[in-house]
Amino acid sequence: MEKILDLTWSSAGRIVISCLGIYILVIAFTRIFGKRSFSKMSSFDFAMTVAVGSLIATTVLSSTVSLAEGALGLLAIYFFQLSAAFFRRYKPFQNAIDNTPLLLMEHKDIFHDNLRKARVTEGDLRAKLREANVTDYSEIEAVVFETTGDITVLHSEDMNQHLKAWLLTDVDR
Question: H or E stretch including 104?
Fold first, then answer.
C-alpha cells in the first residue's frame, strides 16, 4: 500500500504558499475584471468558473505547476472571459457561445417539445412550480429554461397583472 500521509514540511509549505498566492490573485483579478467573472449568466460564464477552480486546484496541489505558471493561466482565463463578455455584444458571437432561453410553459399550456429539447421532465417542471409557490395554473404566466440551465417561473397571484412581452423577447417558443 502506498503512503497515505506522504507530506513533508517543504511540500506543505509549497502548498500553503501557492494557495495564498493564487487566492490573492483570484481576489485581485476579480476586482480588476469585475464580478461578472463568477456570475452565472451564461454557459460560458459557468465554464469560466469551472476552469478557474480547476486551475486553482492544479496550481495549489501539483508540484509540477509553479505559482507563476498558475498565475499566468489564471490571467489568461480572466482575459478570455472579459474578451468573450465584450464580443457578446455582437449577435453572431453571442449566437455562437450562448444558449437561447426556451419557453417550457405559458399559462396552463406545457410545451412538451421544448421540455424534450431542454431534457426537463414534467416532474422537474412540477417541482419548480412548487418551489415558486404556484398553487394554481391561473397564476402561471410563463416558465422559462434559462441560458444557465436554471428554470424561471414567472407568476402572479393578481389576475389583473400580466407579463410584459419584453420579458420574453429573446425566449425561443
Answer: strand 102-106
The domain containing residue 64 runs over which residues?
A: 9-95
Query: In this structure, what C-alpha cell is assigned to residue 122?
Result: 414534467
pLDDT for 42-82, tens place per residue? 777 778 888 999 999 999 999 899 999 999 999 999 999 88
- Please tell me the distance from the alpha carbon of residue 154 to that of residue 161, in angstroms, as a whole number: 12
Residue at which a domain ends, from 95, 120, 146:
95
Within a domain: 85: yes
Measure the CA–CA gap between 107 and 109, rounded to whole angstroms: 6
Q: CA–CA separation, 105 vs 169, rounded Å? A: 15
Q: Could you tell me the three cell numbers for 30?
A: 476579480
Contacts of residues 121-130 at CB distance under 8 Å and 24 or more positions apart, as own/partner, are 124/151, 125/151, 128/153, 129/153
The strand pair at 140-145 and 102-106 is best described as antiparallel
Q: Residue 25: how many CB atoms within 10 A of its CB?
A: 18
pLDDT one-digit tens code per residue, 113-146: 999 999 999 999 999 999 999 999 889 999 999 9
Burial of 81 (0-12, 13-18, 19+ CB in 10 A): buried
